[in-house]
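User: I'm curious whether this sequence folds into something compact or stays loose and floppy. Could you predict its structure so I can see for myself?
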Amino acid sequence: MTIRNPILRGFNPDPSIVRVGNDYYLATSTFEWFPGVQIHHSRDLSDWQLAARPLRRPSQIDLRGDPDSCGVWAADLSHADGRFHLVYTDVKRYGRTTVDGAVGVSLRDFHNYWVWCDRIDGEWSDPVHLNSSGFDPALFHDDDGRSWLLNMLWDHRPGRPRFAGIVAQELDIAAKRLIGERRVIFRGTALGFTEGPHLYKRDGWYHLLVAEGGTDRNHAVVMARSRDLFGPYEVHPDGPVLTARGRPDAPLQRAGHGDLVEASDGTTWLFHLCGRPLPTSDRCVLGRETAIQPVRWGDDGWLRTLDGTAAPMLDVPHGLKAPPSTPMRSLADFTGPELPSAFQWLRTPYPDDIFSLSARPGWLRLHGRETIGSHFTQALVARRQQAFRYSAETLMDYRPDTFQQAAGLVCYYNATKFHYLHVAGDDEGGRTLQVLSALPIGDGASATTEQVPIGEGLVALRVEVDHEVLRFGYRVGDAIGWTWLDTIFAADLLSDEATIAGLPNFTGTFVGMACQDVSGAGKAADFSYFHYEEA
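Assistant: Here's the prediction. I'll summarize afterward.
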């Protein structure tokens, strides 16, 4: 049997994997989406189910104000002495200054934290701040009982490599603080952009795995080894251990940022991020996804892919029966006390400020808050797009009083790229329907369709996406069929590759519900269901 990659379709990358007995736990990044960090569980490496989102409380994390594609980066999950440990970065600033048109100081804020819990689905601790010297922290628990924090080192000075190498410093677990000297243990290779460190010990060697080449088409998994934790490290003689670099026809592109796990049968598996471009372009509308493949340790002690080519695999050999690959069909009716697990929201650790499941039982109420794309308190609840072809629809009860109030169905990547089908008020006390699009063109652009007056009654909204093509439909009151808007929208603009220069793009596209009230009155919209179905 085989497993078809990626194993986590449409879910964010930077995978970190740990095995505890016969259970595998896989942590992935969530960026500005709340709750923070997603942990999936499997017992066979092929069937994965969401097990926890550990960063949920205001005392743990507050992402308000974090720029798009910042927030929680590259969470690292480990297990030692009967306890799970999670370290992660909260990115508060992403940008650079310029001097007379030239690149100047690259000022960014990366804060690294550590939380822990005895159970993967338990209440995780409040965070301990470890450092702010760079991003992608990881914990290595050595066989002598000592633990070490690794992270990449950021150098903001002009004329210096921004990715300044991998640093290590001891973490005193009992005292809950870093101790000793911070030391650079690896400067990286000529590929550059050295990040995402993970350290393993095997046969007396310290094996350091890093991501290099950036997260686009030159991305790669690179390994080096040393007899001493602090180096010097000898780089793998074959070059990258995994990469799609120089393979433009490979179905999985952007392969890199990996982590290793030894299965219970003794085999070794490499988890890594990847992207699947559209057949018609280089754009990955599903964002960065998580993939898996078996690897082997050679007689010379170096890790390689099974065929030695370092190529990512689409079809992965596996001894167990793979779960059926059927299109997803998800109907959320909002009758439970909690938001269905597929959904997340943006930035705020105070969800009661933006939505309620109890104000009108059986409905999701979104309170009108800040503008669509706000970096602070935005009432937007959505789920990931996980297929090239899908449809989504919702039924909304909403009666805006002014043009400053709007609510509807949104396909959302970030503040600079979205398509938003919404109902708003007009100057005569009626309702209009319109699409607002933010376009990642030049320095940023927006476009709107003509306003369509609609009468009274509940409003059903629908989107259908087929690769790069997106269209919206609606019906009002007792209408039976859908009325489709004439405008066809570009779904491929909601991708990592379509971007305004200088902005990070890491999250993938979400589809969901939103509500704004820039008058400050907090006018709410109620949603009866949200139906997502893949074709």
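Summary: The mean pLDDT is 95. The radius of gyration is 24 Å.
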